[in-house]
Amino acid sequence: MTTPSRRRRYAVLQAGARMHYAVPALLARAGALAAFYTDLHSSHRPIQALDAFWPRALQPKALKRLIGRRLPAELPRRLVRDQPLASLSWARGDRGETLVLERACNERFGGANALYTNFINNDIEAVRQAKDQGLYLVHELIIGADVGRILLEERRNYPGIEPAGEPEQVVEAGIERDRRKWALSDQVLVPSAYCRESSITLGCDPSKISVVPYGIPEHWFDLQPEPEPGRILFVGQVGLRKGNHYLAEACRLFEQRGLPFECRVAGPAQVDVTHPLFVGPTYLGQVPRSQVQEEFRRADMFVLPTLADSFGLVHLEAMACGVPVITTPHCGSVVRDGVDGFIVPIRDAGSLADRLQQLLEDRALRRQMGAAARERAREFSWGSYSERLLAALDVP
């Protein structure tokens, strides 16, 4: 017999600091969090001491990432269940995730009567155990369910650009695990229409799915835009999945058309950006968050030609700065085609270049779309995300 939603108290399973621990923090604030199971974070005194005495300029990247995992003030430490000496997942890979799941199962999920997990599908046994104990199960899908197939196809189209990745049988086995997890779940949360549609196509029951778009902190709306005409911006990991090779091709088309522009790409690369396939943009590498905000303020247009994604928080960050967005339907649910940006087909550098040129040449349209984008972004603030999430979970 399912526990009435008004009495649900959740155990949250999460490795890493996804969205700055938003889900457990919001549930704790609503009085609906029983326990939060996670791996290593930076709220432990030894890690804080390392940060205090080790100059930031000399800290290795792994340590900097770990220090960035700060638990929110509204998340009570007594509800946080981790294993700091054992996990050290920033150095030990998937072992940290395994420890999270083992502790949750051993403690019978901290006495919770509901489970919220955003693991992809490597938590099947923990989910099954929770089901056997009668917990209400919520699975958050954090990326399109067909990402494995799309990446496999793209790597076949462009061999040698990225590591081979998972073979087809491993990808299909992962999709089968997705189906088993969906079947066990009482509710599946997705952040976008694309994630909903791809999940249904692969076998998820549509009646279980709730679309809950993410949000951005309200301070983004305090930034004052100062766009430089012709400056195109991309922010994110550089590789085949994000469509950076199609963005580079669009840049080369721009050059052939004699159009004035500067395309700036901010983010870590998992490919060789000097390869001819990626020639065109200026690659900044991974930059500090403060510099990223400055990039958004100065951008004239924002581009995310992704092949498979979930929800583009970078869309919202650009839109909050009054920047029109050109993206694909595989991550474009917030962007309204022709209103605050354009939606172009995946793998279509020509359409991407055409839309960029349209905004470059029609400055009135660019200003109109920028203003619409800024207003649209206000609908997806952090507060709005909180309201949508708690409403979807039926938490009063």
Plain-language structure description:
The chain has 396 residues and is of the alpha/beta class. The protein folds into two domains: 5-215 and 382-392, Rossmann fold, CATH 3.40.50; 218-380, Glycogen Phosphorylase B (Rossmann fold). Helix content is 40%, strand content 13%. It contains 16 helices and 13 strands. A seven-stranded parallel β-sheet has the order 3-2-1-4-5-6-7, with helices on both faces. The protein has a six-stranded parallel β-sheet with strand order 10-9-8-11-12-13, with helices on both faces. Helix 1 (22-29) links the parallel strand 1 (10-13) and strand 2. Helix 7 packs parallel to helix 9 (168-184). The radius of gyration is 22 Å and the shape is globular. The chain starts with 9 loop residues before the first strand and ends with a helix.
